[in-house]
Amino acid sequence: VHRDKQSTYIPPKRCIQENFYSDIIDGLSYNPKKLPSKYFYDEKGDQLFQQIMSMPEYYLTRCELDIFSNKTSELATGIISDSEQPFDLIELGAGDAMKSSFLLKYLVREDMDFRYIPIDISGNILSILNDNLRKDIPDLDIVPLEGEYFDMLEKANSLSKRKKIVLLLGSNIGNMERDEIHDFFKQLNAKLNKGDIIVIGFDLKKNPSIILNAYNDRTGITAAFNLNLLTRINRELGADFDLRQFQHYQNYDPISGACRSYLVSLKDQKVTFGNQTINFRENEPIEMEISQKFSLPEIEHFAQYAGFDTITKITDAQKWFVDAVWQV
Ligand code: AVJ
Predict the structure, then answer these.
(1) Does the C-beta of 93 come closer than 6 Å to ligand 1?
(2) 3-class secondary-structure state, position 232
(3) Ligand 1 contact, 64 CB (< 6 A)
(4) Which of 38, 157, 241, 287 meets the CB 3.0–4.6 Å disulfide criterion with 34?
(5) Is the dihedral angle over the CA atoms 28, 282, 176, 77 positive or is it negative?
(6) Residue 32: is the preceding peptide bond cis (ω within 30°)?
């Protein structure tokens, strides 16, 4: 990376870096400006997300952990129809696999013939996952893949023609806009075969204050998580964002279920990236992340629209979160 601001910026040769550069430049040339939240997860971003998951306000992980740790057999029964058949268990956005490890242990104990393929955009978290699982579940056959959901699903497809069980947990689906969710499920359905299973974790609509608080913590961890993307852009793309001049703002719309984060420019300012200059007006927001919340009928609608049958829906004790099991 060229740190000399006078020189023309030449993106590094690695493909992910080129995409990173063009995605950031594209996003900042939109009106309103937008930065893709999938880039939050560098090493520091992974650490901040681990901190978010242990905050008292961030109920999502605890709720889904309740499902995976206390309703493991119910979940396993939902995903395994024919115990004779070997399968691939593919997890999109696996992170540290904290929740899925309960299911993995259960399946290994039941002597199921399967391979675990965790997919994540962060190579850093995948290597942590790999180390932990090799220690915790030595008998598990694990093939980590670093990259984007569909690219790596394609790769997993080329590895074997076995039955597939795909996990998308933690309300990761909520990081997509409604239209993107429709397209995503349609595309996923098209890539799978009859009888394949998907398990999707959806965060449910609930008291709006509870949702807002989960993303608007007093300690500022979520703010730091958002601001860290600017630090990453500075470091990896040679930009000069002044972090003190951007403020995190979070908002929840209880009707649409969209919980959105923004970084607001605190003054008129310019940010440079090599030969590019981006202008910000005072109080201009950058759209950072959507964490969409859902109702049970909305979830059923997605399944029908994309051509899945609902096998079962498992909620936590508080009924704040649901893992839906769908079949092609
Ligand atoms: C990992 C995408 C599910 O949207 O709830 C947590 C990320 N952002 N706090 C979410 C996140 C702010 C999280 N997901």
Answers:
(1) no
(2) helix
(3) no
(4) 287
(5) positive
(6) yes
- Write out pLDDT tens, residues 177-219: 999 999 999 999 999 999 999 999 999 999 999 999 999 999 9
Pocket mutation for ligand 1, best pick of 205, 289, 320, 323 (most atoms within 8 Å of C-beta): 289
Q: Where on the phi/psi map is residue 307: left (φ > 0), alpha (ψ -120 to 50), or beta?
A: left
Q: Supply 297's token pair.
A: 């009928």
Q: pLDDT tens digits for 233-288?
A: 999 999 999 999 999 999 999 999 999 999 999 999 999 988 899 999 999 999 99
Report the C-alpha gap between 270 and 278 in whole angstroms. Answer: 6
202 C-beta closer than 6 A to ligand 1 = no
Cα(123)–Cα(185) distance, integer angstroms: 25
Would you tell me how many other CB atoms lie within 10 Å of the CB of residue 139? 8
Phi and psi torsions of 162, nearest 5°: -70, 165
What is the average pLDDT across 26-34?
Answer: 96
Query: Other C-beta atoms within 10 Å of 213: how many?
Result: 18
Residue of the CA atom closest to atom 2 of ligand 1: 172
Cα 54 to chain center, whole Å?
Answer: 17
d(CA 252, CA 213) in angstroms, rounded, equals 10
**What does the alpha-carbon distance between residue 243 and residue 240 come to, in Å, rounded to a whole number?**
9
Q: What ipTM was estimated for this complex?
A: 0.99
d(CA 278, CA 268): 11
100: which 2 tokens? 């899925």
Residues facing 165 on adjacent strands:
89, 197
